[in-house]
Design a protein that fits this description.
single chain, about 550 residues, mainly alpha, Na+/H+ antiporter like fold, Rossmann fold, 24 helices, 6 strands
Length: about 550
């Protein structure tokens, strides 16, 4: 009889997550803390239901791989240009100064240079998973303040990949001196540059043509397999040259970010990323030793206070230096002063590779968790301060920001009707994004400079990627059966206030679509019939004898 003990562990993990995550989301503490709590509950520090986590950790690391892959998918040149150099300089300065300050304190406490480098990088991270949804829910992503916060978070995400390479390079070198550390980092940098060069060349000439070939096959399962192959295959290559798995996935994401497939790939990867990343945070929670953290309450409180106050102050001062107003700088510090989910990733990996002493790692993990618990209260303070000062909603100008602000139209389908729609939108200076499931059509229109992507509009994740929740309207110009109905069903449940305009082949189809709650439905047969009869009547009117005319 096969051994099914692993199945019991999986069931326990799922049950703990189903219980804890909804509770923490209801408390507005976010899913990350829910997963951590689930891990603590079933782990050695809790009920002790699962004692062996090494087998789970190998699978959970794939969650970090897919997380870095999706981050790479978001790093388009269009998005980078939209922020401006000043905001990126602010983000770079924040990471550098925060990491240097935290690293110096770590050295002063008697820890190694390797530990100082890891702690500095971990402390510099803020919570993208909490801050971005918060700004989106308050319609502040397209404000000057929101764009500054996004730029800082984006720089932190960019730094994450080199930090993972750093941990992999320092494996087994916890006691390295300063010069040895610099040498190791230099060699790792050269190795990373060589790997990046090879992967970029291969990806440019192999990856994109492969995706086009798979897309033409019109097999969703095969496309998902291709996306997994791109993420995991590149990860395997970088891991075998001494770099990290996640770094390879990050590179694969960047390679696909500028292609027409990025939204479809992100949607296909999302289920794997979500469940595996949740499993990763559960294993982090299982590894947290509550008795160790509880036996050092002073240290946990000191690290928590230092992180919240010190990091907030650094961000506020730097924001002021880079031209932000005094109160805006304070608010930016309040919003980004917490620890982030990547801190758990870095500290957990560093502890597993013995770069950090176990007790010190447990204190850091507990402190980061406390800052995330405090985050909702700091966010309330920041928002009320902004409303009191009436500074939060100063909008930016420019077409790119109009897309981010929700002033764009999403056009689904680029057949004859769809192209007429986009031409009119372009002539009316209305920003738009379009979507089509024909790889050939998408390739041709992208070469012509059109903002079009490959993907299935009936996939909720793709509509999210096109910022449907902030769009001016969605127009379904595609005639593919089921597309209008699928988009209408998604909008009814996910974007209930969204304006949706669709086409229907028959009168009955239009009636059915109106029952689904669409804003307007155009019946193709009626429209064509009216035009034909109108042309006939106009022609008859022209041929009719005029009054007084001799026939």
């Amino acid at each position: 009889m096969p051994d099914t003990r692993y199945l019991v562990d999986v069931l326990l993990l799922l049950a703990a997550a189903v219980i804890c995550v909804p509770i923490f989301q209801r408390l507005r503490l976010g899913p990350v803390l829910g997963y951590l709590a689930a891990g603590i509950l079933v782990g050695p520090s809790g009920l002790g239901l699962i004692g062996e986590i090494e087998a789970l950790r190998a699978l959970a690391e794939l969650g970090v791989v897919f997380l870095l892959f999706t981050i790479g998918l978001e790093l388009t040149f269009e998005k980078l240009r939209g922020f401006g150099s000043a905001k990126f300089l602010l983000g770079g300065a924040q990471v550098a100064v925060t990491a240097a300050a935290a690293g110096a304190i770590t050295l002063a406490l008697g820890h190694s240079y390797a530990a100082a480098a890891v702690v500095g990088g971990a402390v510099a991270m803020s919570s993208t998973a909490i801050v971005v949804p918060l700004l989106a829910s308050q319609a502040r992503l397209a404000t000057e303040f929101g764009q500054a916060a996004l730029a800082v978070l984006l720089v932190q995400d960019l730094v994450m990949a080199p930090l993972l390479v750093l941990i992999e390079t320092l494996r087994g070198s916890a006691d390295a001196s300063g010069p040895e550390l610099v040498t190791a980092l230099g060699l790792a940098g050269l190795k990373a540059i060589a790997a990046v060069g090879v992967i970029v060349i291969v990806g440019r000439f192999v990856l994109q043509p492969l995706f086009r070939m798979v897309a033409e096959a019109k097999s969703p399962e095969l496309f998902v397999g291709m996306a997994l192959l791109a993420a995991l295959g590149t990860s395997w290559l970088t891991e075998h040259v001494g770099l990290s798995l996640a770094f390879g996935a990050f590179l694969a994401g960047i390679l696909l970010a500028e292609t027409e497939f990025r939204h479809q790939v992100a949607a296909d990867i999302e289920p794997f990323r979500g469940i595996l990343l949740g499993l990763f945070f559960i294993t982090v929670g299982m590894a947290i030793d509550l008795p160790t953290a509880a036996s050092h309450p002073g240290a946990v409180l000191a690290v928590t206070a230092g992180l919240l106050l010190g990091k907030s102050a650094i961000i506020a001062v730097l924001a002021r230096i880079f031209g932000h107003g005094g109160w805006d700088s304070v608010r930016l510090g309040l919003l980004l002063g917490q620890g982030g989910e990547f801190a758990f990733v870095l500290i957990g990996l560093a502890a597993a590779t013995q770069l950090l002493p176990e007790t010190f790692a447990q204190i850091l993990l507990a402190a980061v968790g406390v800052t995330l618990v405090a985050m909702p209260f700091l966010a309330i303070l920041e928002e009320r301060l902004g409303r009191w000062l009436d500074l939060s909603y100063v909008r930016l100008d420019g077409a790119d920001v109009r897309l981010a602000a929700g002033d764009h139209v999403i056009v689904i389908g680029q057949g004859e009707v769809g192209r007429i729609v986009t031409r009119i939108l372009k002539a009316s200076d209305i920003p738009y994004l379009s979507l089509d499931q024909s790889a050939g059509v998408v390739k041709a229109l992208r070469r012509a400079g059109e903002p079009i992507y490959f993907g299935d509009a009936t996939d909720m994740h793709i509509l999210h990627g096109l910022r449907a929740h902030h769009a001016r309207a969605i127009i379904v110009a595609a005639s593919t059966p089921g597309t209008a109905e699928g988009v209408a069903a998604i909008c009814r449940h996910t974007f209930p206030d969204q304006k949706l305009i669709v086409r229907g082949p028959t009168e009955q189809a239009v009636l059915d679509l109106r029952k689904l709650g669409v804003t307007a439905a155009v019946q193709e047969s009626t429209e064509i019939g009216l035009r034909l009869v109108g042309a006939l009547l106009e022609d008859q009117e022209n041929d009719a004898p005029r009054v007084g005319e001799i026939s």
